[in-house]
Amino acid sequence: MVVKVAKVQKTNLLPVVEQSEEEKMTVKKYLRGEAADLGELQDKKLKGQLAVREDLYGKSAQAAAQAEKWLMPSEGGYLEVEGIEKTWRIKQDAIAAEVDILSSRKQFDIVLPDFGPYTLDFSLSGRYMIAAGKKGHMALLDMKNMDLIKEFQVRETVRDVVFLHNQKLFAAAQKKYVYMYSDNGTEMHCLKEHGAVTKLQFLNKHFLLTSINKFGQLHYQDITTGEMIGNYRTGLGRTDTMEVNPYNNVIGVGHSGGTVSMWKPTSAAPLVKMLCHQGPVTAMAFHSNGHLMATAGMERKIKLWDLRKFEVLQTLPGSTKAMQFSQRGLLAAATGSFVQVYGDLSGSQEYSRYMGHSIAKGYQIRKVQFRPYEDVLAIGHSKGWSSILIPGSGEPNFDTWVANPFETRKQRNEKEVRSLLDKLPPETIMLDPTKIGSVKPATKKEMPTKQDIEADKEAAVEGAKKTPLKKKTKGRSKPSKVTKKKQEAIMRAKKPFLEKQDEKVKKKRKRAEEENQLPKSLQRFARKAPAS
Amino acid sequence: MKVKVISRSTDEFTRERSQDLQRVFRNFDPTLRTQEKAVEYVRALNAAKLDKIFARPFIGAMDGHIDAVSAMAKNPANLKWLFSGSMDGDIRLWDLATRQTVCQFPGHQGAVRGLTASTDGRVLVSCGTDSTVRLWNVPLPSHTQDDSSDNDTKPLATYVWKSAFWGVDHQENGELFATAGAQVDIWNHNRSQPINSFEWGKDTVISVRFNPGEPNVLATSGSDRSITIYDLRLSSPARKMIMMTKTNSLAWNPMEPMNFTAANEDCNCYSYDVRKMNEARCVHRDHVSAVMDIDYSPTGREFVTGSYDRTVRIFQYNGGHSREIYHTKRMQRVFCVKFSNDGSYIISGSDDTNLRLWKAKASEQLGVLLPRERKNHEYLEAVKNRYKHLPEVKRIVRHRHLPKPIYKAASLRRIMTDAQRKKDERRRAHSAPGSIVNKPLRKRRIIKEIE
């Protein structure tokens, strides 16, 4: 039976629509990099299989682009001005007058003058917030219902606070140690190894609690097993800024000498050390795409760096103590009691002023944090915290399996179990996370250096000396015989190395002879490299 | 001034009633998911480990025969039934679900060498060393439920011929069947003598197989180390190819009927395209002793082989090495294997008088799967296949426990082939360039092809 494939003519019932530039860009985004070059492959079977796979990748990228175009429930926020109006002159009151009640309720000021500058953190889904004042006041809030879940006073300096994998656990860097609390205020753990921590960060996918303390020591602790994965001395003194690069989970630390160093948990030396500013680095922020970093120095400059080339893209003026990038790429920089929000409005990676907000004079801003999946910027300052609306800063469409602001208890528990199953080992943190699963280029095998050969020889001789000789009876283990046996063992261990040396010497002599045989004019063509 | 701020109303994003499912919103943006490759890698590693935990391929053994199982036949009309014949002439019909004998067909005086069922599944043809071909009526499934399990049936017809038979195969959708013995005979159900006979040389024909796609083409293997292709419409054989060692059994690929695979005495299986027989398409090497029987899966993507070295292996149709090996301490020389018609099970008949039922995919979950379970299995399989080349995952996926004699025999064979290859390389390096030609293994084992 011969299988005949009838040639089906593709009839175009619908007119073929040309893909616009925008659609092509979205398809490119979903392709996640360039296609593999199959031309170099010799293996025909593999080539065929890979060609089919590349085709499938193209199709799935198209389907994802279509889903983005038609199926996303909401579009992002925006702020459009007419005529000679400028976006950075628009005040929060003007915005409040134009938006709905639910959104205008997201603008508020909480004044708590007694307990010191406040620092805050949001959970991954943006629903829960923890605020901690320096004098020991900690409050856990549900931002959707504006509920106070728990507040308590620890009567100690609290320098930083961070949520762990969900709102059920958070860690606070207190005067001497780091403490872990559950959401009903119970102290769960006291982590003594970290010491007096100035900044805390949590790596979500690896379940690693990272801290930098007063002496510049970086600690990585796995909170599922309690094991301390890494404990490194940065060697560059006291640091106040530590941020996570969300793209590759590398920790960036800003030092008082103006250098920024990047760390991973499996190496004692930093991955990158770059001199960013002429004075201490006062604030840092990483963009979610992983190749844009903003640093602020004491010399009143904000620099935007491209992390692929480690070059400055742009310099902005401002002496900033707190900075953060939003999910959509807006940069909030806070100086004193004024927050400036920058954005790349023209789409050309040039950041310009977008919006600004000044809180009451005299209040010092300690932290700015964008609320995930909302157009809200939370500001922690010396007399409490405030929240303002920044249209266009949050990601409008959340993915239920990544972060769900409307999570139920069951969904939260299920998510916890699944993320524990998918917990990444600390070795997966690297500057380029796409290297996992890629083919390592073939490296030439290096010849062992003289020192290596010597070291091997010494090791072999030591091994031969150490092997115990059997004690024989009837006069067969006389001292003279024992020493003779030992000498023989050492000679046997040395033999292969001496043979190699002899070979080398012989080769050299042979080459010298060959060179001598040639007439002088041709001696420059004598073989320099040994024939393989 | 135009302003819009993200504002989500709760009822749009949560379910209406408690009986509803929770609402799911998707955003496939890669920037929301960092370190995707690392997550996939961890999942692949866990999937490989889980696979090994759930790998329990052996389902059960069917015992009843009192001598080695020499032939098996599938019933094309019934998935659950299997015929088997043993060296003492006992033919049994097994129900694979209960692993019990449905009925027996006594009558053969010597070993049963070949068994085959007609395409409608009503007639069973058996042949043996007592030079007889017997046709039996296969009972209907409804009948067997009434009667007791040990049912003796009388043969429909018995044809006696001149010499012992070695194999039999039935034509696809036809009335003819072919027997292999001193020559290839073509029989009709109703005639007591073969209607046609083919012969090329004076050697015994060991096995015969009809092509599933082209019902008039059949392939045979002979004890003169040849594979011969016959066409019933021609009066003489079509093509013959002589190899270095004898082929014990053949099987046609049901999805690509121009390809067949030959199970050879030199521990390899050779896949050929019948249109171009001067070179094998693929050589499947993994067994350490003669391969006795071979059968293709109905998907045409893999085949199972049983070998004299007491193992059953499953190969990919285009792969050089086996993807799976099954062995038990109690299973001795495997003489026949069959892939079930739904592609999920393997049945092996061996020297220790037992038939064994195995799963084709060792860690497969049998039974009805929920759609979510099925999707999860498919995802884990896909992510494991994507990363199975990385060393940690590969170490787990590849690992199989081999019995010591087979492990030793395999490493010995490897040493021997490596030594041979080195010697050939040195010979080539020390002779004039181009004087020694490098013949690929696909061609090396073929002596010649005759029209």
Fold and architecture overview:
The complex is a heterodimer of chains A (about 525) and B (about 450). Chain A is of the alpha+beta class and about 525 residues long. Chain A is about 20% helix and about 30% strand. Chain A contains seven helices and 29 strands. A four-stranded antiparallel β-sheet of chain A has the order 2-29-28-27. In chain A, strands 3-4-5-6 form a four-stranded antiparallel β-sheet, with no helix packed on it. A four-stranded antiparallel β-sheet of chain A has the order 7-8-9-10, with no helix packed on it. Chain A is globular, with a radius of gyration of 32 Å. By secondary structure, chain B is an alpha+beta fold. Chain B has a domain at about 60-360: YVTN repeat-like/Quinoprotein amine dehydrogenase (Methylamine Dehydrogenase, Chain H, 7 Propeller), CATH 2.130.10.10. Chain B is about 20% helix and about 35% strand. The radius of gyration of chain B is 26 Å and the shape is globular. The termini of chain B are far apart. Chains A and B meet through α2, β1 and α3 of A and β1, α1 and α2 of B. β1 of chain A pairs antiparallel with β1 (about 1-5) of chain B, so a sheet runs across the interface. Chain B: InterPro entries: Sof1 (IPR007287), WD40/YVTN_repeat-like_dom_sf (IPR015943), WD40_PAC1 (IPR020472), WD40_repeat_CS (IPR019775), WD40_repeat_dom_sf (IPR036322), WD40_rpt (IPR001680), WD_repeat_DCAF13/WDSOF1 (IPR051733).
